[in-house]
Design a protein that fits this description.
Radius of gyration: 18 Å
Oligomer: single chain
Number of domains: 1
Strand order of the largest sheet: 1-2-5-8-6-9-10-11-12
Distance between the termini: 40 Å
CATH superfamily: Alpha/Beta hydrolase fold, catalytic domain
Strand content: 15-25%
Helix content: 25-40%
Largest sheet: 9 strands, mixed
Structural class: alpha/beta
CATH class: Alpha Beta
Length: about 300
Amino acid sequence: MNRRHFLSYLTLSTLAFRSGLTFAAPAIVTTQVLPLWPDLPPGGGGPAGDLMISAKGAQRNIVRPTLTVMTPPSPNGRAVLIAAGGGYTRIEMGKEAWPAAAWLTARGYTAYVLSYRLPHEGWKDGAMVSLQDAQRALRVVRQREPHVSVLGFSAGGHLLGMAITRADFHSYMATDTLDNLPATADRAALIYPIITLEPPYTHTSTHKILVGKNAPASEDAAWSVQEFVNPQSPPFFLVQAEDDPISDPHNTLIMADACKRQHVPVEMHRYSSGGHGFGMGRPGTPTMAWPEHYERWLKS
């Protein structure tokens, strides 16, 4: 299969339309799929067969993690690493990652969409594999781009939050010289993220997959993003609906408080309705407003 191809304006506008978005003008976006690792991913194990994609565009059976690079015709010199959610049981590309990438490339940003390994798919390194992929992805993007930010949805927000707040944590042994680069970002947008795995917020799929039902308090804390916010953490942009039934609405409040304690800039937008999984905005709810605020924040 040719690893380099082109997506038409029609393809991207269809993705955007499904999220209630529009483009100002047609464009051709160059798309390239990069393998994340030079050989087999760390640890070994994993599933066999082909990548599985649901009718709504969710991925699972991630045999080889990748980055899909989407470059607009006139790049503005800034890149965004995107991780969709799915509770670490799937990756909601169709509802979250592809529409976000279409929105970003329409505004000149180069989008890097991460297809990361899922811990329950037989990988020997278990819960660590998604974090390994996120850190590796940050290094890959850092090598290619001068300005890098991240955009994570739900469990993807948890994943990227863990990656950028634990930049000094070695989740895997170095595989090549690329792994000597820092796994850092200039800023981070987390949309209806899972932040804490500590009680009483232990009901999520993220908690079940990463630490399990009867995990000790130390494990809950070890996988809670707010525990690792530090003065070197980048500025954060947080979005959540107050009627979110999956990610308790306290998650963004907990993260904002952690940022303020460490004197890390944070901008938070909370909406009265919209639920969970609204992607770039759910039509008919106040969540349709967040991309406009996000665009201003990216430019600031």
